[in-house]
Amino acid sequence: MAFSKVYPLYIKKAERKNRTKEEVDQVIRWLTGYTQAGLEKQIKRECDFETFFAQAPAINPNVSLIKGVVCGVRVEEVEDPLMQRIRFLDKLIDELAKGKTMEKILRS
Q1: How far apart are the C-alpha atoms of 3 and 47, rounded to whole Å?
Q2: DSSP H helices in the chain
Q3: What domains are defined for the chain?
Q4: Residue 14 pLDDT more than 90?
């Protein structure tokens, strides 16, 4: 699955709850270490999730603080590393859409 195909869905989900594209980008950058330019480059390249995460400059060291359930699955218990990173991102977008503060979402 191409990250660029799911990215607009993340934005739509956030915007339905009065959040912004900029906040979605901030969450993605926090998780992956991409700069804004790097994130936009990956979107334009239409890379798949595996490539997107493999080329991420640095997965945030606080990723282990992301806990909870997405689609009935506890994100901290997902065994496949790629799927876990995808679920972490889903969880962060869910928290954004649910109105959590950026400080809490970014585990500050």
Answers
A1: 6
A2: 3-16, 21-32, 36-45, 49-54, 81-97, 102-105
A3: 3-103 (1.10.8.290)
A4: yes
